[in-house]
Design goal:
Helix 14 runs antiparallel to helix 15. By secondary structure, the protein is of the alpha+beta class. Strands 3, 4, 5, 6, 13 and 14 form a six-stranded mixed beta sheet that branches. Strands 17-16-15-20 form a four-stranded mixed beta sheet, sandwiched between helices. The radius of gyration is 26 Å and the shape is globular. 38% of the residues lie in helices and 24% in strands. It contains 16 helices and 28 strands. The chain has four domains: 215 residues, ATPase, nucleotide binding domain (Nucleotidyltransferase, domain 5); 68 residues, no CATH class; 115 residues, Substrate Binding Domain Of DNAk, Chain A, domain 1 (Sandwich); 87 residues, Substrate Binding Domain Of Dnak, Chain:A, Domain 2 (Up-down Bundle). Bound molecules: adenosine-5'-diphosphate and magnesium ion. The site of magnesium ion has 4 residues, from loops.
């Protein structure tokens, strides 16, 4: 199928349009493109630099700042300054429970299995909203620098990102006004930037070592016929350049006899010290002694001491490499290439130790904080069909998914996925004793199924009657090389199952596909905001259902006053549901949740906490 692109301003189709590659990082983000000389190049918007710190600040007057300027607010206005949002993307509160203290802003848990939200002032933001702000900044910088509209992108994610995290990244792109052609693994992009995997004849096994600002991961990839397969990943989501800065600060605190608690209270000074530490760390690329003063604090450090301080942390990453190899069932000698990614791999000790472990020189010729974005640009170029030497694999032209609560489209196989492919997700029931579940299969890019094309519908019957949230229903999509889609639904506790087969491309022309893609872009903004309202409403309705059922069952263990007040909260939530104001709905859910939590906990009702788990279809 021909690749078309759409000019957002005019709605017209353009055949020749730049597709950018985006590295949406935890610490820094950046965008790259293929220049007229056919080389991948990072975009440097005049005077702003290449790296955009992944930080968003919300001002009192509703002004939003992204990047370097926002970073300054980390010290002066931490509650309203969001960093590391990538850690929250596609995650439920349950997923992040153990490290919630890491965030200086407010992360909301109104329902342990639903996706987290962030509260800033009176407003609620999803990590998707916040990531979209970063992506929008990148899009605007690219447009400014390239002097042309930028509507299409390839975005990278860590190899270990799950389906929900990938979908969230797609949604963020869409919200930023970008047509996301593909989500690519960061290690895959990094290899492409080194030209590894571009030759369809070559078969290779490589290790990609990525040490960023706050996270570390290593991936073992097998490349065959231009296809990248992730054999294993390992890492530590709380190990990175920030830790190196911290060991330096601790060292200075000790040498200067500073009071740690007192220093922590002086946020301004702490931040200045942090910046000095980072400066010292970076300076060892060209000098062996750092010697500066901050007020009356001596910031002195030599390279040798620095390396001693870092050693245990770097050793930890080597252990991860060992584990990754073990999981991939490979010996270190079977690794053909080692690719270094992430700003922190600039440190000499890191390079030495990684090269030492793998017993070979590592690839560090490309700028390690640019390599992922550059590779993403190359992937974009491949998808645009500009590389005649590379065979474009068959892909599905439109996303495939099912209808979930509120008439929303839940994508199971995203558009542009390589065929054959399979994917699946688990669902549950929303009502007690539900014995049937409708599975409606759709094709298309819109958020509401009514705007998409219906392919099939069936009823999974014979689910044993259980409380809402108990059944575990797996929905699996299998798209074979002939384009036949098999959809299977199976209730895991009872084994009841049902399946259907359709051919998604049957009865649809290329023109209709183009039209559907175009509509999805022109309606992207409305679609996403509608989805958010529906999601908020569904969450509110579920909450009311759960609370009312709770009162019915356990009315006796709750005081009359508690019941009366709960009913009042429920009534105001119901009013909010009518309003269609998503922030208000979230606020009311939050209030009801805060109020009922203590007595729900008091009873520790197993059924209720179970009912909270899993996403339901209707
Ligand atoms: P992420 O992938 O997490 O968004 P990056 O790859 O941009 O992060 O890495 C950011 C980290 O790299 C920061 O901790 C920064 O201090 C570190 N870094 C950047 N340049 C150097 C350098 N020359 N030496 C050591 N560390 C560096
Ligand atoms: Mg990175």
């Amino acid at each position: 199928m021909a690749k078309v692109s759409i000019n957002l301003a005019t709605g017209s189709l353009q055949k020749e349009e730049i597709i950018v590659g985006i590295d949406l990082g935890t610490t820094n983000s950046l965008v790259a493109f293929i220049n007229p000389d056919k080389n991948a190049q990072v975009i440097n918007d005049t005077g702003k630099g290449v790296l955009v710190p992944s930080v968003v600040h919300f001002g009192q007057t509703g002004d939003i700042t992204v990047g370097n300027d926002a970073k300054n607010y980390l010290v002066t206005d931490p509650q309203n300054t969001i960093f590391s949002v990538k850690r929250l993307l596609g995650r439920s509160y349950h997923d992040i429970e153990n490290y919630k203290d890491f965030f200086s802003y407010k992360v909301i848990d109104d329902n342990t299995e639903s996706l987290v939200k962030i509260k800033v002032g009176d407003k609620f933001y999803t990590p998707i909203d916040l990531s979209a702000l970063i992506l929008k900044e990148l899009k605007e910088r690219a447009e400014h620098a390239l002097k042309t509209p930028v509507n299409r992108a390839v975005i990278t994610v860590p190899a270990y990102f799950n389906d929900s995290q990938r979908q969230a990244t797609r949604d963020a792109g869409k919200l930023a006004g970008l047509d996301v052609l593909r989500i690519v693994n960061e290690p895959t992009a990094a290899s492409l930037a080194y030209g590894i995997g571009l030759d369809p004849e070559e078969t290779k096994t490589i290790a990609v070592y990525d040490l960023g600002g706050g996270t570390f991961d290593v991936s073992i990839l097998q490349i065959q016929n231009g296809i990248f397969e992730v054999l294993a990943t390992n890492g530590d989501t709380f190990l990175g350049g920030d830790d190196f800065d911290r060991v330096i600060i601790d060292y200075w605190i000790e040498k200067n006899n500073l009071d740690k608690a007192q220093l922590a209270e002086n946020r301004e000074l702490s931040q200045q010290l942090r910046l000095k530490a980072e400066e010292a760390k970076k300076s060892f690329a060209h000098q062996s002694i750092f010697n500066e003063q901050l007020g009356d604090i001596w910031c002195t450090l030599d390279k040798q001491t620095f390396e001693q301080l870092m050693l245990p942390k770097v050793q930890q990453t080597i252990t991860c490499c060992q584990n990754a190899l073990k999981d991939a069932k490979l010996d270190v000698k079977q690794i053909d290439e080692v690719v270094m990614v992430g700003g922190s791999t600039r440190t000499a000790l890191v390079k030495q130790m990684v090269a030492g472990f793998f017993g070979r020189p590592v690839h560090d010729e490309v700028n390690p904080d640019e390599v992922v974005a550059l590779g993403a640009a190359i992937q974009a170029d491949i998808m645009a069909g500009n590389r005649k030497d590379i065979l474009l694999l068959d892909v599905t032209p439109l996303s495939l998914g099912i209808e979930t609560m509120g008439g929303l489209m839940d994508v199971i196989i995203p558009r542009n996925a390589k065929v054959p492919t399979k994917a699946g997700r688990q669902y549950t029931t929303s009502v007690d004793g539900q014995v049937n579940m409708k599975v409606a299969v759709y094709q298309g890019e819109r958020d509401l199924v009514k705007e998409n094309r219906k392919l099939a519908e069936f009823n999974l019957k014979g689910i044993p009657a259980m409380p809402a949230g108990f059944p575990k229903i797996d929905i699996n999509f299998l798209l074979n090389a002939d384009g036949i889609l098999k959809v299977q639904a199976i209730e895991l506790r009872s084994g009841v199952k049902q399946e259907v087969e359709v051919k998604p491309t049957y009865g649809i022309t290329d023109d209709q596909v183009e039209q559907m893609l175009m509509d999805s872009i022109t309606h992207a903004k409305d679609d996403v905001s509608q989805r958010m309202i529906i999601e908020a409403r569904t969450e509110g309705e579920q909450m009311i259902y759960t609370v009312e059922r709770f009162l019915q069952k356990h009315g006796a263990s709750v005081t009359d006053e508690e019941t009366a007040q709960t009913n009042e909260y429920v009534a105001t939530l119901k009013q909010a549901l009518e309003s269609g104001d998503k922030d208000l709905i979230h606020k009311r859910i939050d209030e009801l949740n805060e109020f009922t939590r203590p007595f729900a906990e008091r009873l520790m009702d197993q059924a209720i906490s179970h009912a909270m788990k899993g996403k339901s279809i209707d």
